[in-house]
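Hi F.,

I've been meaning to write this up properly since the lab meeting, where we talked about keeping a consistent format for the predictions we share between groups. The idea is simple: the sequence comes first, exactly as it goes in, then the structure tokens exactly as they come out, then a line or two of notes. No screenshots and no reformatting. I'm using this chain as the first example so we have something concrete to point to.
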Amino acid sequence: MLFSSLTFLFVFLPIVLFLYWIVRPQLRNVVLLLASLFFYAWGEPKYVLVMLATILINYVGALAVDRFEKKKIVAVSITIVCNLLFLFYFKYFDFFITNINKAFHSDFGLINILMPIGISFYTFQSISYVVDVYRGDVPVQKSLFKLALYISLFPQLVAGPIVKYHDVAEQIDNRQMVYSEIILGIKRFIIGLSKKVLIANTMGAIADSVFSESVDGISTAVSWLGAIAYSLQIFFDFSGYSDMAIGLGLMFGFKFKENFNYPYMSKSITEFWRRWHISLSTWFKEYVYIPLGGNRISSKRTIINIAIVFLLTGFWHGAEWTFIVWGIWHGLFNIIEKVTGLAKDSGVKWKEALKHVYALLIVLFGWVLFRADSISYASAYIRNMLGLYNSVPCMEFSAYFSIFDGFILILALLFSTPIASQFVYTPSEKFWKNKLLNLSLIVLLVVSVSFLVASTYNPFIYFRF
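Output, unedited:
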């Protein structure tokens, strides 16, 4: 069930909010858990069993970590391996078998199994819990019910943000229903919905039409259009979903951390990863990079640690070589910036402006890798962008791009910057400004719903991961 579906907006969410608000506080977690399990079962009921098995394994594993002090390293290792085996089986098994068959001309059979939605997200959340217990950062959760709520909580279940256990452990037991935060949550949800429906879907339609063509059938200018459209689609698609998740959390008393901070304002790839999918990058930092030694050891080992993290980051996104190369691409420039100091602020405006252009280009070429069906297609597409491919010399934008699309593109570029954030998220002392904002949000909601009713195009990129 998508947050941007009419079923969610007009049936599921109103019913859950009504039940949550009318029951006594002691029963609110029950309402949330039952709603979360129903939400997950909506798409494919049998995969609820996979998630319940994950919950049980981590519940038992964390209890073992807590009880067997001298062997807790064994307990935490077994629990992490069990989590990763689930992920490997459903997400990566066929990828490895396919590549083994190609490399050794073997004929091992594929399982051809459908990947459970959100398994990458709730697996990482489960690992964060058991590792937090192992480190002594949080007490073990002795209530299976409360651990199930943490892992299955529907606002962040299928597409994040990745909520680490130590960030919400207290909120599971103690949270307040504050009117101002509920209103803020509703506003945040509407903003996320409009980003997804109005901007991401519009840009996605352009990107799909361009990337569906063979490279020699599009001009250099159109290839740039496709890459820019996809870059805007994935940002507004994912950040819009994160906004909706954060807004929903506020409606139920949870405070999730921000997941995006205007990543296209970055002046380096290092900075980009401090702004893009923050919950994933901080997860890898806390649970992979620092345990490997981080930057506290030799420069050579630090470079190796960065390479490992970005290789895993690419692999986390999907069982395709394009994702792996995309992770290596970002890791390479992170390492270059680490060695050269390029990520440091020079204090010179024109140099910082050039660095901004550099970062945007690296990210843009990276998104081509991310979007392409194969590395060979991505390579040809990037060469076409650079004018190095024998493609058609010219093609009318009108085949891919309407006046309305141009209007949405301008809005997308505008809202990729923090220009409007102060007006949207900071309450004004002036009565008329607050009323104008509220009216604007109502209009956005109505227009977004109208688009959903009129169109069947409503993909969500990160459901794939």
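Notes:
The two ends are 15 Å apart (CA to CA).
The mean pLDDT is 89.

If this format works for you, I'll send the rest the same way.

G.
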